[in-house]
Design goal:
The chain is of the alpha/beta class. The protein has three domains: 137 residues, Rossmann fold (3-Layer(aba) Sandwich), CATH 3.40.50; 81 residues, Archaeosine Trna-guanine Transglycosylase, Chain: A, domain 4, CATH 2.30.130; 224 residues, P-loop containing nucleotide triphosphate hydrolases (Rossmann fold), CATH 3.40.50. It is built from 15 helices and 18 strands. It has a six-stranded mixed β-sheet with strand order 3-4-2-1-5-6. It has a six-stranded parallel β-sheet with strand order 15-14-16-17-13-18, sandwiched between helices. Strands 7-10-11-12 form a four-stranded mixed β-sheet, with helices on one face. Helix 11 packs across helix 12.
Length: 460
């Protein structure tokens, strides 16, 4: 039986974490309740999660005393609020009034009472301090996914006979039986029968000649040809295999592909492609598939301190949308945009898209409770979102809405997220195999921004 002592940041990250420790004890030092009380008035995700934890605790109080312990799940787990161990000795130079040190004092006191204590915290420094005291410490792992090199990419390289590849390449109605495909297994250092996921994209090579290739997608039963790779939406021409796969995802209707997830390094045109196809669908297609183009970005200052800037919501978040404007400027640039007059016209065109609300920008935190119909919705920089935020937004769409989730797991600014616990990779791993979700991970050699950007993405 273990005693899991929870740090406040675990509860703020996952309000239902109280119920996830099976048959073990969950210990909340009283200072955690004080911190929850301090955060509960905030008008952001941290405040909402704090209020949810308080509601969870309030519901449990009808079952017994928190000081004695309350059963929280079917496995027999017990929740207790700990107010003792005030006299447990701590290092003399550690500030006694600091909340983190009080949590560590509770851990040390329980450990001295011969309990199997584990501190659960998303704060690396607190876990380091716990190790100084000889206390076991872990990160909260319930929503963590595989390491980066083992995460799902939505694409693979497969091999087959040249005759099969020729039939598939030249015959529009031809498909490939996945049983005829093999893939390279790095651990075995040999080719093995292909194991494919729903909607996985394939670069298929001939067994005899690796330069003899074709592109396809596994639809759950067979490998089918791509349908949209020869199109140039809004003048965009794909420059590599990854961009061809992205275009296929984006050009499919919201009924076929309501959720699209793009991961990869900067400069691989994830945002540019998503904006370009969205504008193509809204401005160039005869049948109006979408009524709104909405862009959200979960930048940390935007979600936590949106009120520090003057103006409306759009004006407040505009500094965080400068990357979007850069991409729109590229899309709208004409051949004469190197001239001052052409540059000014392009700037006016981009501003017109916002003024006429063809493109709308909103804070991610304000999407809770909405029901979106016929939206082309781009969620950019989602590596800075939490799994709870990702779930909240993916459950918003109504009929006719397409959600595009974009991000680079290597560029995370959130203090309590990493490459295994952010909303982008969480959504990617949990939605793998869904017939409604299409995914593409771009590679470093597919960076098209500039030679310098490509070199930096690999080296830095």
């Amino acid at each position: 039986m273990k005693y899991y002592v929870l740090d406040t940041n675990v509860l703020l990250h996952s309000p239902n974490s109280l119920f996830l420790f099976n048959e073990h004890f969950v210990i909340l030092p009283e200072v955690v309740l004080e911190e929850l009380d301090r955060f509960k008035t905030e008008a952001n995700e941290r405040g909402a999660n704090s209020r949810q934890v308080i509601r969870n605790i309030d519901a449990l109080m009808s079952k017994g005393s928190l000081l004695e312990g309350i059963k929280v799940n079917d496995e027999g787990g017990i929740l207790k609020v700990e107010t003792n161990h005030l006299q447990t000795e701590m290092p003399a130079n550690w500030e006694k009034t600091k909340a983190d040190n009080r949590i560590l004092q509770v851990c040390k006191g329980l450990d001295e009472d011969n309990h199997n204590v584990v501190l659960v915290s998303r704060d690396t420094n607190l876990r380091v301090k716990a190790s100084i005291l000889g206390i076991k410490a872990e990160d909260f792992r319930n929503d963590k996914v595989n390491d980066v090199d083992k995460q799902y990419t939505g694409r693979a390289v497969a091999y087959t006979d040249s005759a099969i590849l020729d039939q598939f390449y030249f015959n529009d109605t031809e498909t490939i039986n996945p049983d005829t495909l093999t893939m390279f297994d790095e651990e075995k250092n040999s080719l093995v029968p292909a194991s494919l996921s729903m909607n996985q994209f394939l670069l298929i090579k001939s067994n005899n000649n690796e330069k003899h290739t074709a592109l396809g997608r596994f639809d759950g039963e067979k490998v089918v040809r791509l349908r949209h790779h020869r199109q140039n939406p809004f003048g965009i021409v794909p420059r590599n295999v990854g961009q061809i796969f992205m275009q296929e995802c984006l050009m499919m209707s919201a009924e076929e592909a309501p959720l699209v997830i793009f991961k990869g390094p900067a400069g691989t045109a994830k945002t540019l492609y998503s904006l370009g196809v969205g504008l193509y669908k809204m401005m160039e297609c005869r049948s109006l598939e979408y009524h709104h183009l909405l862009i959200c970005r979960p930048n940390i200052p935007m979600d936590e301190d949106i009120g520090f800037l003057p103006g409306s919501e759009a004006e407040k978040i505009s500094p965080f949308m400068r990357g979007i404007r850069d991409n729109l400027f590229t899309l709208m640039s004409s051949n004469n945009s190197d001239e001052l007059k052409g540059l000014a016209q392009t700037e006016d065109t981009v501003q017109m898209l916002f003024d006429n609300r063809i493109i709308q920008t909103e804070a991610l935190a304000f999407q809770r409770g909405r029901s979106l119909r016929k939206y082309w919705m781009i969620l950019d920089e989602m590596q800075n979102s939490t799994p709870r935020q990702a779930k909240g937004v993916i459950t918003r769409p109504g009929l006719g809405t397409k959600i595009i989730i974009i991000g680079d797991p290597a560029q995370i600014d959130h203090p309590y997220l990493d490459s295994r616990s952010n909303g982008l990779v969480y959504a990617s791993e949990r939605m793998r195999g869904s017939k409604l979700c299409f995914q593409v991970t771009l590679q470093h050699d597919e960076c098209e921004r500039s030679p310098l950007a490509s070199e930096a993405a690999i080296r830095l």
